[in-house]
Amino acid sequence: MAKKLIIAEKPSVAADIARALGGFTRKGDYYESERYVLSSAVGHLLELVVPDKYDVKRGKWSFKHLPVIPPHFELAPLEKSEQRLNVLLRLIKRKDVTALVNACDAGREGELIFREILEFLESDKPTKRLWLQSMTADSIRSGFGALVDGHQYDGLGAAASCRSKSDWLIGMNATRALTRRLKGRKEKTAWSAGRVQTPTLAIVVDRELEVLAHVPRPYSQLQAKFLAGDLEYLGTWFDPSFTAPEGEEREQRDDRIFESEKANQLLELVSGKAAAASETRKPSRETAPPLYDLTSLQREGNRRFGWSARRTLNAAQRCYEAHKLLTYPRTDSRCLPNDYRAVVDGVLQAFSGDGPFQAEATALVENGLENVERTFDDAKVSDHFAIIPTGKVPDANLSGDDQRLFDLVARRFLANFHPPAVWTRVERVTEVAGQLFRSRARTLDEPGWRAVIGQTEQEDQALPPLAPGQDEANGMPVRTANLELVAEKTKPLARITEARLLSLMESAGADIEDEEIAAAISEKGIGTPATRADIIENLIAKGYLVRAGKSLRPTVKGIRLVDVLRRIKIDRLASAALTGELEYDLRRVERGSMKATQFMDEIVEYTKQIVDVAVSFQYEDLYPDEESLGKCPLCGRPVFERSWFYRCLEIPGSTEETDCRFRIWKDKSGRYMDRQTVRILLDKGETDELEGFAARDGRTYSARLTLEDGDVVIHGIAGSGSERITEAPEYEVNEEPLGPCPMGCGSQVVETPTQFQCQAGIAKTAENAAKARAFEESQPKELKRRKRWKAPPEDQPCGLLLPRTVCKREITREEALQFIGPNKKTELLTDFTSRFGRPFSAMLFVKENGRHGFEFAPRVKKEKGAPPEAAEGASTPNEDAPAEPATPRKRKGTAAAKAPRTPGSRKPAASDKAEGRKAARRKT
Question: What is the pTM of this model?
Fold first, then answer.
């Protein structure tokens, strides 16, 4: 009987499909029923490599071998994926398998994974496409009832291939060329650059330079406290005729007084004078925000909980795959199809029966839905629609990030259909001696949709109506209770948060607040909703960005990379807008309005331009000596900017060394020394308070800088420590113990904001820390080197400790329960990220010292004819090529021909050799 082979993207999805369709029997690495054979990839199994004929074996980073532009690419298996490919190869070659079903994720990367497998394994069997929006059993069954011809997605496959090849070409060549020119002698890491990551970095760098260059200007605000009867309110003086000079609109405002003499004159003028108030009150309707797409959900997660984009995505993916609570999360649409109304009604019926959303859902069932035309719109639905609940009511086991994220999506879904919130906007003007004071407020009259998401608090000072019968012409008399000049300083723009960066990536760097306008230009954004989280994490992993509280800050290395790219005129690589145009062209390829060959021809020319410029630029041309920043405090020569520092030169334009030792390095305790700061330091010998310095413990602080005998000295400001540069997020704590400690100490394992730990271990660690402090304080202060207290063996704490974030992946409470359970080991967990930015899968187990170790899927030899065990390593899409590609070694007789041999992997069976003899790397 003829059967179809279903290929899913992950083993967990294959298991869901098997349960939903029913009738399957598991046979090692695949399932089989009367109609189907079912198996899966484990994310990306293959990578692009240069054909052997064109690959350079020695001196790959030499300029003479750049650019690397092979006439075609070949595919080679990723490490540990060979056996999984052999499984798929045998299944595809089965005579009873007459067609294939692409059940990989419904998007660009899922299409690429499936098509690369077919191309590598040389399959020409007809294919069908499964396009799922939800992972519920009903949705899976409905999807299999609506399979379409795989050729309908040829455009999507072409765009995916172009994306992969363009990232390889630009990333590989730009990284090698820039590393050769910029890498210092002591540096161990490459200067990575890429089509998507570098313009994203440039967005953060531009904001940082604005922050650093800002010079605070003192100003005053004249504030008054008035009494209208028994009611008190505040007002701020303003000039109704004020117009800000062009370019100074952000700092120059109608209520700021920059001249101290004028401020004192105003205070004297209004003191003791009569006051009269008048006001206008206008109703205002606030419509509910639309449904979430992935980017808006990530922004909300960052604003509400301080989550990173990746943390939000991981929680959404678990709610989709594991819990079946949400629809497909990697979407860029905020609308639903026109024919989805019945599904929405079903979700509301499910929520109105019982659970935390019963009241809100019941109100919609009884009263009807608002915003129907805006929500149900086929024209605004792409490959996937907005993220909404599936209708499944969560059970009591849902907790942590998953519970909070589901609550966020469910409440936004319900709020979207509720009536608008109704406000009263009040503007009150109080006149004193011809001078005007302004008071504004917004009062919530009808909460509407805001009641659903719990945002009903009063935002401004209360301004009850003035007494009835006030004189409309002259206003109502009020008393002035107090007048005060408040001293302020202008502040720079806020540093970019992850939420703001996601918005700027979506709009290709354009600073757009209006969500409708942002949606209109989102086709020219940087990256895709599915990849933006990885882009940000990649920049952090490569040392270009750091997290400081909720903000993202570029490192000195990141600032220098963008600065050099702009100075050598590789503008496109550091331009968000121009990179957005490339993303738009990929969408044109997907729609068929642009040929893939045309896109790749443009990428090849772009790559050649990058290498030509990077190879040929001269350092002396990067920093022309047009303007001296000041005089050297040691020798009096003019000081100019150079690549790593600022220094004095004998003659402008000269590159000759002088005997003067003066240098101001651009990296000063983690803070970039911009030109404006250096200019002030050379002019005055000191600076005002500067923020952004980083201590060794990761905490940022403010300091003054002084020049002392030609050296830059940092004077830290006491009490200025604020945000901490850190990678470890904190989570909510469930105070109920997880269970007994597996180390046998008799204590319970509990949650803390950052780890799962034995209670006895926590107590003993705190006790030992107190003993260590007491021991150190007891030593004489004159000792140059103090001894440190070391706990004796009997005082060593129980070592059981599992971080709640392991390799940038959250460990859930359920997974921690497996870790401390009888087997002392979790099931196979996916989505870990190595320190090199590569994803992997592993099981966590308890080591002898109580810490966690990684156990990878075993590779067990099977009897002849039996399917081999597959390595469950996963790979996720990467917008930028790695610094160095895999160089395959020749191997004969397997589906992984010419791929690197993985240490410890099994020797290919004879059946593997027969099946894989023709499966050498293919041209793409």
Answer: 0.76
